[in-house]
Amino acid sequence: DANAAAALFTPDAEYYWTPFDPPQRGRAEIAAAWSGAVQGQRDIAFEFDVLAAAGARGSAHWHTRFISVPDGAPVELDGILIAEFAGAGQCRTFREWWHRRSPEG
User: Fold this and answer.
1) Where are the beta strands (DSSP E) in the chain?
2) Deepest in the core among 6, 72, 97, 104, taking most CB within 10 A?
3) Where are the alpha helices (DSSP H) in 8-105?
4) Number of neighbours of residue 47 by Cβ within 10 angstroms
5) Under a CB-based contact definition with an 8 Å cutoff, are residues 39 and 67 in contact?
6) In whole angstroms, what is the distance from residue 5 CA to residue 89 CA?
């Protein structure tokens, strides 16, 4: 649910999908990007481990597997994220770095 995901962020949040592209800014852009990403995925399995948390910042290692739609190819991603939270517990800044394993191994 893209709108539910976007509601986890402050109204002026910045979501950096990669370190090289400009961020998605605000809930509407985050929801649109999230929707575009997950509409091509099914059978999603997601795991994470919190690496550190201090004050309003935290980092985690995450790993996901899913099936790509419509080609049915398995996809595996592994990444790190850093999140900064506002007082209400919503995320203000979210940055992630990830790699994709090719189906060939």
Assistant:
1) 9-16, 24-25, 41-54, 57-68, 74-85, 91-101
2) 6
3) 26-38
4) 10
5) no
6) 14
